[in-house]
Design a protein that fits this description.
This is Xanthomonadin biosynthesis 3-hydroxybenozate--AMP ligase XanA2. It is built from 11 helices and 28 strands. It has 462 residues and is α/β, with parallel strands linked by helices. The protein has 2 domains: 302 residues, Rossmann fold (3-Layer(aba) Sandwich); 98 residues, GMP Synthetase, Chain A, domain 3. α1 packs across α2.
């Protein structure tokens, strides 16, 4: 079967393939334990594209990862934009739809409270293949997705991504992963495909690399083990620190892994080393943002410094860092403070400008305070934050919300007194059963403040 490039698809100065393929049988995904080749995948994409109404943008709410992948490409093939809310919560979807009047909503599940203009995908059917394998080409400057930040530091913001930028960012990820794994590997991901980390590691990798993705999104440790058993080696687990902690603590045995990848929240060296020892595979932590995509990585269990991808350059600023990367049209400012090493090819995080505290002339960062909180034996999860309102003497106090079964507030405060300046001791410190982490393990500030307020009302005041 010959490979033919569909040059009629979009008239543009530059077009890039929708799919990287050297052979029509190249496995793109694993569904129900069976491989789906590139030819069959594109049949499914064209089938869904034919069902889409004429609109500028579509909210992609597909839960099954293969259905999301098919829908993502169908939307792109129609010249539309994938809208990716920060969560599937109705309010988040409503906010995105309000910003894009007339947009369509596509999903693969029945919804009790479906948003307006919701279309549930029909079951996919296998078409009769012709003699040629036609590979679509996409306008490099087409905005194929708009990702929304999680709201962990404020209101979610929109970040448009062109097909050119996704090709460039994926090239960096593939180079980093191939150096560790070789050119071909299979992926199971616990993160939702709507999140930019999920897009990069479970949608773009199988599209633009020699990678096969498992169709599911396992959550519990036993489900992760079962999903990994359905794909061949070399296996890569794409996950978050929250899921890693659950896997390590569960004691479950996983099929042999070639590597683990983590992002979305800080990963402690202790957890990284425990995961590597438990599962016998390197743990690669990647660094990026919805605004920039991934641009650096490290072995968190053995490295403090991050290594930049090729052609990425950082420019430290007084209030953050400018990121210059191949996937960016212009440098993007992040709030992260860094120090450069090794001729600018490596860096260390020094916190975020918004995290820096100054009380009575002394300084600290919320990231470092949280790290010291999490280092206390018995603390399973927790976060330090600065309250919005000032107290009677004009100081915005530090608070903490902690998950620590078996410990009380006094024991945690006593441990913190030995690790931090007393000025930064959290008051209030509230114990809760769980933190309000979203699907990717992040902590939206509004949800965290609401939980703190609820816990504060139910306990004696300091």
């Amino acid at each position: 079967m010959a490979i033919v490039y569909d040059t009629f698809q979009h008239e543009a100065p530059q077009r890039l393939p929708l799919l990287s393929v050297t052979h029509p049988a190249r496995t793109v995904a694993w569904r129900d334990g069976a491989p789906i080749g590139a030819s069959r995948f594109l049949d499914h994409v064209r089938q869904v594209a034919a069902q889409l109404p004429a609109t500028a943008a579509t909210v992609n709410l597909c839960e099954n990862r293969y259905m999301f992948l098919v829908a993502f490409c169908a939307i792109v093939l129609r010249g539309q934009t994938n809208l990716l809310p920060s969560s599937r919560a109705p309010q988040a979807v409503d906010e995105v739809m309000a910003a894009h009047p007339g947009c369509h909503v596509l999903g693969d599940l029945p919804l009790d409270q479906a948003p307006p203009r919701y279309q549930r995908l029909a079951p996919l059917e296998d078409a009769t293949r012709g003699s040629d394998f036609v590979l679509p080409l996409i306008d490099a400057d087409q905005v194929v997705a708009i990702g929304y930040t999680s709201g962990s530091t404020g209101t979610p913001s929109a970040n448009p991504k062109t097909w050119r930028s996704f090709h460039a960012s994926t090239a960096g990820n593939l180079q980093m992963l191939s150096a560790e794994l070789g050119p071909r590997f299979e992926v199971v991901a616990t993160v939702p495909p709507q999140h930019m980390y999920g897009i990069e590691m479970s949608v773009l990798l199988p599209l633009l690399g020699d990678v096969g993705i498992h169709a599911g999104r396992p959550f519990f440790p036993a489900d992760v083990a079962a999903a990994l058993a359905e794909i061949p080696a070399p296996r890569v687990l794409v996950t978050t620190p929250v899921h890693l902690r659950a896997l390590v603590d569960s004691g479950i045995a996983l099929p042999p892994l070639a590597a683990m990848v983590s992002a979305t929240a800080p990963l402690s060296g202790e957890l990284a080393r425990a995961a590597e020892q438990r599962f016998g595979a390197p743990l690669l932590e990647v660094f990026g943002s919805t605004e920039t995509c991934v641009f650096a990585s490290r072995r968190a269990g053995v490295q403090e410094e991050w290594s930049l991808f090729a052609d990425v350059h950082l420019h430290p600023q007084p209030d953050g860092t400018l990121v210059d990367a191949p996937q960016l049209d212009r440098p993007v400012a992040l709030a992260d403070l860094v120090s450069l090493h090794n001729g600018g090819r490596r860096f260390r995080l020094r916190g975020r400008h918004a995290d820096l505290l100054e009380i009575a002339g002394k300084r600290a960062s919320l990231a470092d305070l949280t790290r010291r909180l999490l280092a206390i034996p018995g603390v399973r999860d927790g976060v330090m934050l600065q309250l919005d309102d000032a107290d009677a003497i004009g100081v915005r106090r530090v608070a903490a919300v902690v998950v620590a079964p078996g410990l009380d507030e006094h024991a945690i405060l006593d441990a913190l007194r030995r690790a931090i300046d007393p000025l930064f001791l959290p008051r209030p410190l509230r114990l809760v059963d769980a933190l309000p982490r979203n699907e990717t393990g992040k902590l939206p500030r509004a949800a965290l403040l609401a939980l703190l307020h609820t816990a504060d009302e139910s306990q004696p005041q300091d």
